[in-house]
């Protein structure tokens, strides 16, 4: 996909009722993290002590690029005979809640909220959410969200080999109306 200026993020093959579904997520080619990026990501994030990461703007892959890539991918699948029978090909950008696949993805997104599914349960759960607070070549540190106004939960170290899938989480907060606190009960 380098001809289109894209990297393949994830390829998924699933079996539908009547045919296979091939899903390919493409993202713009991103430079590999520098040694300085790796060093910074290996340091534990201290909320409030450093500025939050810039807002993630999502992928820059256009609809036209996805269409051109789709034709190339389909031709390659058909020529190779990789899939027997009929199939549906879906090619798109990974979106705002992009999957985190490689260690470099975790380095790039340090300081952002993520969601992780693990092979082995951690503290009785295989599904975890929290702030990506640290990343290195072997794994990352996840800080669970605070309950109410209290401090966050105990940070959890997760090795990449225990990750089934991980993705960014977009948090959308409803703005408060002037003079109407969000937690104030409405009078009738």
Gross morphology is globular
List the uncertain runs.
Answer: none
Number of domains: 1
Amount of beta strand? 25-35%
N-end to C-end Cα span: 59 Å
Number of strands: 8
Order of helices and strands: EEHHEHEEEEE
What is Rg?
20 Å
Count of runs of 4 or more consecutive helical residues: 3
Largest sheet: 5 strands, antiparallel
Measured as a percent range, the helix fraction is 10-25%
Find the structural class using helix and strand composition.
alpha+beta
Strands ordered across the widest β-sheet:
7-6-5-4-8
Q: What's the average pLDDT?
A: 86
Task: Write a brief caption for the model.
With 188 residues, the chain is of the alpha+beta class. It has helices spanning 35-42, 63-80, 103-108, and strands at residues 6-15, 20-28, 87-92, 113-122, 125-135, 139-143, 156-159, 163-168. It has one domain.
Summarize the structure in words.
The protein has 188 residues and is of the alpha+beta class. It has one domain. Helices cover 17% and strands 32% of the residues. It has a five-stranded antiparallel sheet with strand order 7-6-5-4-8. A hairpin with a 3-residue loop joins strand 5 and strand 6. The longest helix has 18 residues, at 63-80. The protein starts with 5 loop residues before the first strand and ends in a 20-residue tail after the last strand.
Task: Set down the secondary structure blueprint.
Elements (H helix, E strand, L loop, with lengths): L5 E10 L4 E9 L6 H8 L20 H18 L6 E6 L10 H6 L4 E10 L2 E11 L3 E5 L12 E4 L3 E6 L20
Parallel strand pairs: 2-3
Antiparallel strand pairs: 1-2, 4-5, 4-8, 5-6, 6-7
């Amino acid at each position: 996909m380098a001809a289109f200026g894209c990297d393949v993020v994830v390829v998924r093959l699933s079996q539908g009722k009547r045919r296979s579904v091939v899903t390919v997520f493409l993202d713009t080619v991103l430079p590999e993290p520098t040694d300085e990026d790796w060093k910074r990501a290996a340091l534990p994030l201290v909320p409030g002590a450093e500025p939050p990461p810039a807002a993630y703007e999502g992928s820059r892959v256009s609809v036209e690029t996805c269409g051109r890539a789709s034709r190339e991918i389909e031709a390659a699948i058909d020529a190779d005979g990789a899939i027997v029978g009929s199939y549906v090909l879906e090619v798109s950008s990974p979106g705002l809640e992009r999957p985190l696949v490689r260690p470099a993805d975790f380095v790039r997104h340090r300081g952002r909220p993520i969601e992780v599914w693990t092979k082995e349960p951690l503290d009785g759960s295989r599904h975890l959410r929290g702030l990506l607070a640290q990343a290195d070549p072997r794994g990352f540190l996840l800080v669970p969200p605070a309950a109410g106004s209290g401090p966050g939960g105990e940070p959890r170290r997760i090795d990449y080999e225990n990750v089934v899938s991980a993705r960014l989480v977009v948090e959308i907060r409803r703005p408060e109306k002037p003079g109407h606190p969000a937690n104030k009960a409405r009078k009738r």
